[in-house]
Design goal:
globular; five-stranded mixed sheet; alpha+beta; 9 strands; two-stranded antiparallel ribbon; single chain
Length: about 150
């Protein structure tokens, strides 16, 4: 994960990470790190087999609970497609769709929307300047996904 306060880019180890031991500046870590919400840490029912060290994915809840994101370790770009993990993603996508919420897989800047009926590769997205919109097509009932700048009229 990128950490702006530490000038740490995405997909690079943090200079304060002691691999295998943890954060070397934990007591004084920036608020960005303090408020980070990893599902594996925050949900006691989260399956241990999907622990980030095993699955190579960090799951987070973002945008006030309106998005579940799976941030895949760039060294293991296909990790999200592992059979059991993919089945979990599909179950979650159905639950998210019922709540008009999103489930996205991120591999670096690449985003893939996981929908109940299909996956939509959104390519490289710059979330700093773009928004990912989900909208149900009234004619087909399918969820359509688009990436764009600020919505019209804003």
């Amino acid at each position: 994960m990128a950490i702006t306060a530490l000038n740490k880019p995405m997909n690079k180890w943090c200079e304060f990470c002691d691999k295998g031991a943890g954060c070397k500046i934990y007591p004084t870590r920036p608020s960005e790190c303090r408020t980070f919400d990893c599902l594996w840490l925050s949900d006691e029912n989260f399956p241990d087999e999907f622990r980030p060290q095993k699955s190579k994915i960090v799951f987070t809840v973002e945008h006030g609970g309106r998005r579940v994101s799976a941030h895949v370790d760039a060294a293991f770009p296909g990790a999200w497609q592992e059979k059991k993990l993919y089945a979990l993603l599909k179950r979650w996508s159905a639950a998210q769709a019922q709540k008009n919420s999103q489930l996205l897989v991120f591999i670096g800047k690449r985003a893939i929307a996981i929908l109940p009926d299909r996956d939509v590769d959104l390519g490289d997205v710059n979330l700093e300047g773009n928004t990912i919109y989900y909208e149900k097509n009234r004619a087909t009932g399918r969820i359509e996904v688009t990436v764009s700048g600020a919505p019209p009229g804003s």
